[in-house]
Amino acid sequence: MNWIAYVDGYCERLAPGLWGEPLNSLSNLAFLVAAIAVWRQPKGRVFATLIGLVFLGSTAFHLLATRWSAAADSAFILVFVLYYAAVFPRVFFGASRKVSWLGVPVFLAFTAIVASIGGGLYLSALIGLAVFAIVLKGEDRRRFALAAGVFGVSLSFRTADHTVCGSFPTGTHFVWHLLNGLVLYLTATAATKKAASKVDAAPS
């Protein structure tokens, strides 16, 4: 496979070049802002680092538009999601570390099922956020309900990017970045606040 091959998947990009997607590139700053905000929270260092990697991967992809940068973009998002799946049972339900890490294969299996009916990682993540909001209570429920709502809107903008090129040449993918910065902040904050209230919580 040619890892430096050109990838054009968004309305805003019309040709190869470092500045072919200015809005898509600059809107990644939302992830950097989220990473900095989470870093300042107790128990926020791991989540902040993972969000920072999302910022780097997405920025590289929208600046360079190559296969390797696309792979890095997807990989860093997946790492964040899988880490969250791994620590969620421990942070919110007090499961042991060994049991909690079973969240990874469970989520991957669920994603495979969703993919088999036409969905994928993002749809399974949206469903997961909605389920978290249902099974939790109080402030935790409100945080995940808000995150699920914002992510649902964000996903609609990501999908719309492929259909509005004729009437809106810049596309809507940049809104996906802006809203997802908020989603990552909300989900990370939900975990860090819960972890900080416990003696031996997973995030750090």
Draw up the topology in text.
Layout: H1 22-26, H2 29-39, H3 45-64, H4 67-93, H5 97-100, H6 103-116, H7 121-135, H8 138-160, H9 173-196
Protein name: Ceramidase
Transmembrane segments: 46-64, 76-95, 107-136
Organism: Amycolatopsis umgeniensis
Can you offer a commentary on this structure?
There is one protein chain. The chain is an all-alpha fold. The chain has one domain. Helices cover 70% and strands 0% of the residues. It is built from nine helices and no strands. Helix 2 (29-39) runs parallel beside helix 9 (173-196). The model has no long low-confidence stretch (mean pLDDT 95).
Key structural traits:
204 residues; 9 helices; membrane; transmembrane; transmembrane helix; Ceramidase
- The helix/strand class is mainly alpha
What radius of gyration results from the CA coordinates? 17 Å
Strand content: under 5%
How many helical stretches? Answer: 9
Q: How many structurally independent domains?
A: 1
Question: What is the number of E strands?
Answer: 0
Q: Helicity range of the residues?
A: over 70%
The global form is globular
Question: What is the first-to-last residue Cα distance?
Answer: 38 Å
Low-confidence stretches: none
> Biggest sheet: strands, sense, closure?
none
Pattern of helices and strands: HHHHHHHHH
The average pLDDT is: 95
